[in-house]
Amino acid sequence: MHFFNATSNEKYENRTKGFRSYFLTLSGGPRIKLMQMDSVLISAADVYPQFTGLAHIAFSVGSELKVDQMAATFIVNGYEVLDGPRWTGDGYYECVALDPEWNRVT
């Protein structure tokens, strides 16, 4: 963190899902989310389980309504919505979809 003058929030943990995360906030506002999940595998033989490495890319669209609209747009255009729209345990309203290369877009 000290190389980029980043600050960290307190660790978020969901023990039911075996999930832990931190947000690193850089000067100017960009944030990086570091995540660890007990069920995340090391091999990428299947697109549905999550793996080590780049897990997903997230965008802020501005409102709960816009997230709902994005989810509907993904579905209408043939993209698979894996989760949501929903509120996460750490306070975010999100939808998780697969892009054409099976990356998770949140």
From TrEMBL:
InterPro entries: Fosfomycin_Res_Enzymes (IPR051332), Glyas_Bleomycin-R_OHBP_Dase (IPR029068). This is Uncharacterized protein.
